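Notebook B, p. 112. Complex prediction, attempt 2.
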Amino acid sequence: MKLSFYPGCSLEGMANDYGRSITHAFSDLDIELVEIDDWSCCGSTAAHSLSEAMSVALPARNLAAAGKMGLDLVTPCAMCFNRLRFSQQALERELYDVPWEVDGDLRVHDMTRYMASEAMLRRIRNRVKRPLEGLKVICYYGCQMVRPPKITGYTDFENPQTMDHIMQALGARVRDWSYKSTCCGASIGIGRRDIRDSLSHRILDKARQTGADAVVVSCPLCQANLDTVQEDGAGRPLPIFYFTELMQLAFREPAGDDWFGTHLTDPRPLLRARGLV
Amino acid sequence: MKQPDPPTAAGTERRVIGERGNLFPARLQGETGVDVGACYQCERCTNACPVAGYMDIKPHQVIRYAQLGWRRELMHSVTIWVCLSCEMCTTYCPNEIDVAEVINHLRNMAARSTITPREEDLAAFHHVFLHELQRFGRVNEFWLMAAYNRRLSILKNKLRDGSLVADMRLGVSLWRRGRLKLVPHRSRAIQEIRRLYRKKGIT
């Protein structure tokens, strides 16, 4: 099985551990990811905020390149996914003119939903060598992957389940909570740290109240916010995992704990306590 | 015959509906496809908004202001810059008004105008981001933050409140963990992207 892959800028820098774990997880599942040749940035919030025309045009270049490959497109970053879908829909309605030919039928998946299909879950269950028994996790989805439903295609946007299903397939104990898709503050922390801190701390407080050991995310910015905001040392440390990291942990024995060292909130004490590394 | 002005409470200035008040909603609808006239002020958007507390004009008021054509107030507001585009308002509007799109459109309008943004740092970040994007074709976090912190207005504030030191400390600890890519990737498509910038009037 082959998919075209749009990693997004974060996966080259802050979230390179996410990138690595995706490579491992997909190769374990016998899926080949073909990176879009010479992809460029989707413009993210900035293009959208300053010029909507740009926010349609920038992803269009990548959509055109993916269209030529003739494969389904999968992207791990929530923002990239949202922008690619948005651009595709805007171009379908012929609201904007772009210098690239975009295929309206190209299927753009966010990685979690792709992984949470019945067939993929079966594949995941078969691959698990070391079930994550005893690990209590909650899944945090953030905004851009699930909202607005018209663009993302989520029908359960109030209580998304994709990552919950994946974690159950890995054998983890998944807890339910109400802050699955509450905003963590995104890039606002750069200009207004006070807002980011209050939003991210609220999510972490609620996460601690559920009694969970760790939070599972799929968005590089959510991970960065929830991880760095814990630097002040308030409250019980709560490791923030990418869902693919836990897949790698369940698939590989020995998994090697070197890549967990990239987190600011060190998850190794927790994993050791649960006998997982 | 000209209608007399309606009476106003003593001491309060009578607010005139924008001179093109009745045209602004139509313009908005033309440009964004959003019908602000459908709003009946149930305040569901404001109740859903995670940053309403930081806004001077709350989301439901934004829609009301738009109906009245009060563009000046909207373009000068904190709201348009503090909005996170998290799309809660849009998702929960019972009348399917795309509130986030309206706020974003106002932000686009303000960015194109000569108005000084009320949240200069937040606006500056967006500009720096787009500038970095056309330099390399992709955005590198290290170069992005360096370019942002280099801006004089931001550097001054950050030196004053000591957050520059905290930023650098965070940078070092991220670098130690291998999370910073110091050498940016240069996309082969830079020329293509720069052409796009020129066409769309962004530099």
